[in-house]
Amino acid sequence: MKLIKYILIILVFSFTNAYPDNEIKFQKWKKDFKKVALQNNISEEVFDTVLANIKFLPNVIKYDRYQPEFYEDTKTYISKRTSSKKVLFGLNFYKKNLDLIHTIEKKYNIEKELLLSLMGIETNFGTYVGKMDILSSLATLSFDERRAEFFSNELLILLRLIETKKIDYKTLYGSWAGAFGFFQFMPSTMKNYAIDYDKNNYIDLKNNNDAYASAANYLSKIGWKKQQPCFYKINLSKKIPNKYLNVSAKNLHDKKKLEYFRKYIIDDSALDVKFDNMVVAIITPDKDIIPDAEKLNPAYIVFENYEIILKWNRSLRFSLAVCTLKDKFANEL
């Protein structure tokens, strides 16, 4: 653990020390990116106005290299995001927004507990939406080589949303990665799933109405199934072949019906037989990240709904935390 942190800090320090050189290269990137934007039907007026004051943000590179998903063990990650304080804060938010929450749940067939969980983990119920200049963040990550194609595309989408007056660029302050609003939507998610629930010809994802409806619409469209399981923590037999152990969120492989995996689970009594025909995967999220982690512990059986949350955020731990907090809310409501 300490070694990994040390290496990451050294890499970040080396990168940020090269700031002057990066700033010069960033200005060249901006000129080149303008050509790309114009070729993608972004007007010169919008480009020059919106990106006039963008800056290279070295801290964004630091955050990208040192995300909690890269170094926190699963127990720590989940406990931090599903605390009793978080539950109490969420219950208070729920009481203040009963009508909206129940209306959205009924209209989109998405459990209120899931929406509360996502909002709680993403922005602590709208109290921390981030203060980074999203345009500069996306530009910095587009300039950086690690995921340049992805973030360049996100920046182009955001410019298009601004061009069509669906988003006010002056409000674009959020996370270091370019996510925005109470549920931390990336530009592509805004484009595909955000809703003007108030019907005022403007999408405001820092407004409970638009934000809540947009999150529910997103979950509905990507396939969340109400009242279906998400995951179960399990103890695995040492006889299980390595090929069934998923350590990456990018593509869960070697999935089988739950019935097949029972022979590798020690005490499977918590897994109802009604789930036997459901296709599941096994994840061991600490195995390739935490030094000296046990090969088979922790381990989880994950269902289709778990993979739906992976579409929201491609992190094994994030999905576990969301479903854990969802269950805690379900026990209180």
Distance between the termini: 38 Å
One letter per element, helices H and strands E, the order comes to HHHHHHHHEHHEHHEEEHEEEHH
Q: What is the total tally of β strands?
A: 8
Helical content class: 40-55%
Task: Please count the helical segments.
Answer: 15
Strand content: 5-15%
Poorly predicted regions are: 1-14
Taking Cα atoms only, what radius of gyration do you get, to the nearest Å? 21 Å
SSE class = alpha+beta
Biggest beta sheet attributes = 6 strands, mixed
Average per-residue pLDDT, rounded, comes to 89
Shape: globular
List keywords for this structure.
333 residues; disordered N terminus; 8 strands; six-stranded mixed beta sheet; 15 helices
Q: What does this protein look like?
A:
The chain is of the alpha+beta class and 333 residues long. It is built from 15 helices and eight strands. It has helices at 2-17, 19-39, 44-50, 58-65, 74-81, 84-96, 98-108, 112-123, 134-143, 148-163, 187-193, 208-221, 258-261, 304-312, 316-332, and strands at 132-133, 173-174, 231-236, 245-246, 256-257, 265-266, 279-283, 299-302. The strands form two sheets. Strands 3, 4, 5, 6, 7 and 8 form a six-stranded mixed beta sheet that branches. A two-stranded antiparallel ribbon has the order 1-2. It is globular, with a radius of gyration of 21 Å.
